[in-house]
Design brief:
Blueprint (H helix, E strand, L loop, with lengths): L2 E2 L7 H16 L10 E6 L5 H12 L3 E5 L8 E2 L12 E2 H9 L4 E5 L7 H5 L2 H7 L6 E3 L7 H13 L7 E6 L9 H13 L2 E5 L8 H14 L2 E5 L2 H5 L4 E5 L10 H8 L20 E3 L12 H4 L6 H20 L2
Parallel strand pairs: 1-7, 2-3, 2-6, 4-5, 6-7, 8-9, 8-11, 9-10, 11-12
Helix pairs in contact: 1-12, 2-12, 6-7, 6-12, 7-8
The chain binds phosphoric acid mono(formamide)ester.
Length: 332
């Protein structure tokens, strides 16, 4: 495996094989598997789980890693093509990314959406421009509209909890004071569709996921025996739900217009997940969120701290699934 950029690049059986490897490495650690191998990690945006779990995964497999956070201990790096670099950035990705790739056996890059032009973000313009600069194995640590490592960990979490393959998976929008990227909702949607679940996107008017993301997930659902639809009605979505996957994202109706987005979301503070959201769900219904999460803004304390919440298992699962990705990518 040369690149791990998007779960959609893999057949369902290939994802299942990676999950099998993750479970095997959990039970039978291989502390020398990647001895002498080096992973470079470039974070244009903050992280807690992705950063720590990739470093831990490399160390548990006997390898090493280095971390670059442009502008914090290293040069500020320009990503835009063709700009006159007379501002804060001292280095361009065109020089910086190949230099970093030369020091390691695989590179991971986190570069969030610019959040201004939906078409450009959907096309992964910035991430793909960096990816085209190197020939080394590459991992997407979260790009404009994708977070495959989170999606793989979430799939393992569903399997760990024996959530039925055909169970109802509700991806629900939740309130946040500002517009957040589409990466996690898009990746979670695709994961659940590819797993073969009955997927429902629950979101207020103005926050529908882009057609390109929905269509791609619809094709994955059709190929895996699942289904996909969307609604703005909570009761319609949550009746009998096995999973409530909560995520905050920006208004797609006015993408890139922060004032219009703020006007829309200011009326939606009631989209904070509370215990009463689960009254018509399955008694086993799980609460998922990729973290970080704002308590009592997106999800109430009682829900996050309650028995339904599996957010810590999702966070833990980042480690074994990323060990599996690294093992498949780098083991001699
Ligand atoms: N879920 C996730 O990717 O967490 P971080 O942003 O902390 O890495």
């Amino acid at each position: 495996m040369k690149r791990f950029l998007d779960l959609a690049d893999f057949e369902r059986d290939e994802v299942l094989s990676l999950l099998e490897l993750a479970r095997r490495l959990e039970k039978q650690p291989e502390p020398r598997a990647l001895a002498g191998r080096i992973l470079g990690l470039v974070f244009f945006n903050p992280s807690l789980r992705t950063l720590a779990s990739f470093q831990a995964a490399m160390a548990r497999l006997g390898g090493n890693s280095f971390v670059i956070t442009p502008g914090a201990g290293s040069w500020q790096v320009e990503t835009r093509p063709g700009v006159v670099m007379d501002g804060a950035a001292a280095e361009h990705v065109r020089e910086g990314i190949p230099a970093l790739a030369a020091y390691c056996d695989a590179l991971g890059i986190r570069a969030f959406a610019a959040g201004k032009d939906l078409a450009s973000d959907l096309a992964e313009t910035a991430f793909n421009a960096m990816a085209s600069l190197i020939d080394k194995p590459l991992i997407n640590l979260e790009s404009a509209v994708n977070h495959p490592c989170q999606a793989l960990a979430d799939w393992k979490t569903l399997d760990d909890l024996a959530v039925p393959r055909a169970g109802r998976f509700v991806l629900s929008w939740a309130y946040h004071p500002r517009a957040l990227p589409l990466a996690v909702p898009a990746a979670a949607l695709h994961m659940a569709a590819l797993r073969g679940m009955e997927v429902i996107v629950l979101r207020p008017q103005g926050f529908a996921l882009p057609d390109a993301i929905m269509e791609r997930a619809r094709r994955a659902a059709a190929a895996s025996g699942g289904s996909l639809r969307e609604t703005a009605e909570r009761e319609d979505a949550l009746a009998g739900a096995e999973v409530l996957y909560v995520k905050e994202w920006g208004a797609t109706e006015c993408y890139g217009d922060s004032e219009a987005d703020a006007r829309l979301r200011s009326r939606l503070t009631g989209w904070c997940v509370r215990d009463d959201w689960f009254t018509i769900a399955s008694s086993e219904c799980r609460l998922m969120h990729c973290l970080p999460v704002r308590r009592n803004t997106a999800i109430a304390d009682a829900v996050l701290d309650g028995a339904r919440s599996v957010v810590q298992r999702e966070a833990y699962n980042r480690l074994p699934v990323q060990m599996a990705v690294l093992h498949r990518m780098l083991k001699p």
